[in-house]
Design goal:
Layout: E1 15-20, E2 23-28, H1 29-51, H2 59-66, H3 72-107, H4 119-132, H5 140-163, H6 167-189, H7 193-204, H8 212-231, H9 233-238, H10 243-248, H11 253-275, H12 281-293, H13 300-320, H14 329-346, H15 348-353
Antiparallel strand pairs: 1-2
Amino acid sequence: MNPVSPSPALHLPHHWRLRWRGVSLLLPRRALVVNLLLTLALLAVAILALGLGSVSLGPAEVWRALWGEGPAMHQLVVHQLRLHRVLAGMATGAAFALSGCLMQTLARNRLATPGIIGIDNAATAFAVASVVGVGLSLAPSAMALAGAVTATVLVFGLAGGSGTRGYRFIIVGLGVGAIAGALTQLMLSRVPIDQANAAFPWTVGSLNARSPQATALLGLGLALGLGWALRLVRALQLLQFADPVAIGLGARLRRVRALCLLLSVSLTGLAVAVAGPVGLVALLGPEIARMLCRHRGVPVLASALAGALLMLLADLAGRRLLAPMEIPVGIVTAVVGSPYLLWMLLNPSFRSRS
């Protein structure tokens, strides 16, 4: 009997093959290298963010303080004043970027991020409604999630099935986001100044003095969402093809789309509940990941890492550029990301690929 010839896929030149107890796994080399480099860069920026401030600490001092060593003042600064902010920045950036990657894949449009199609604004409006107390008593995190779900239902319902593939989907999302933004401003204009000031950080995006409970909930949701997204990578790659092709290749489109939408909305709502509407991280994170990975797949993990890195860098810039005055992280990301968004909209080659 002739031996069975090995599968050609096992000899792909740009992949590594791992075997363990009869299980074989094929891993793309470049994606692994990119994820490793992004992880190292994220750790380096996190240590830098923990060390910079009114009390400056070197990397070695930060490292010792993280492990409960060194002077008590250093441990206080790192653990009590800065660590939570850094963790919140990493978690929200990863959640926004992962949500953007999933939404873009679902809609087959690289402009279809939660911020651009109005999910961020709706989550913010519901969170602000909870803060200013307009007859609603739920926590801002729960209200933000409810707002994200409401906006998603409206956008997909008004755009229709065919609309999710073109600019009609974007236009409907912009309209829903504009209405949500107007409602937010209306609520802020009709409450006492103290309540308006308390709710204002939700409208611009900020990591200052955020709830540890909301951050912990986001961390749990991010861990679960990233795990599910990694399990769905192959199915997500099939979503990039036409429906008949994807079905022919074995994709269960209805189930995959429902899970993808659930993950994206949940991550957006939880992230907005922590940091407010931090603009364009959901757009820039996946774009950076695609540029680094150089493939037409769905860079789930790289998008999350790039989003976390981008959020930390933006927050660090906002804290240090005009110190001691702080620029909210949402303003920094909007200033950095808006020119790129404009280029995407005006670039004919990009519009032909979306």
